[in-house]
Amino acid sequence: MANIILLGPPGAGKGTQAKRLVDERAMVQLSTGDMLREAKTSGTEMGRLVAEVMDKGHLVTDDIVIGLIEEKLQTHAPGGYIFDGFPRTLKQADALGELMARVGETLDAVIEIKVDDEALKARIVGRYTCGNCGAVYHDTNHPTKLAGICDVCGSHDMKRRADDTENALRTRMLAYYRDTSPLIGYYYAKGQLSAVDGLAEMDAVAGAIAKVLDKA
Ligand code: AMP
Questions:
Q1: Which residues have a Cβ under 8 Å from the Cβ of 124 and sit 6 or more positions away?
Q2: Cα angle: 60, vertex 191, 2; to 5 degrees
Q3: How far is the CA of 60 from the centre of ligand 1 (A)?
């Protein structure tokens, strides 16, 4: 059992790899992006405010996401937690350290998924997911076998994210390089960082992550 952070720019494959770990290792995925997308559809004032910020590609305030994670750290996680898209700022990283200490957990590894920027753009603009089971597809790289029907669960409910547009992506990349990339140095200095090649085949990336986990 291990608690890990998946770190990397938008489109690096954090969500895809996290879902595999959930299936294969009974880990619990804590994706602040997923939690915020859920809040967006809640019809509350907070949901409306969050939607405005997210759809443009800006970061939501630290206090909101730290609060979301704090609530979820009560979840039973026999295989450990996967933090996906959190922390994204140094303040969030410090808060995570404190929260983990408070619940008696340790952070066992931080895995940076490395990709190049051009590949990211191609991956993100064209991405869609199954609204029912969360399987991820792409218009050119990995379309569904039958148009509009999920290969995994047969659902017709295909979704595109409101922030997977070129404009929002530019803002998200900027937020990544300005606010999140300093975490690479932060965790490296703590001796917790491992890097994997995110441009490799999906199975090879999963294999590289598994190696880090087995050592953690
Ligand atoms: P993601 O699904 O991880 O790409 O997140 C989608 C969007 O949700 C981001 O572009 C931010 O607007 C917001 N978000 C997700 N996680 C965080 C976080 N840890 N801190 C601030 N904003 C976040």
A1: 10, 11, 164, 169
A2: 70
A3: 7
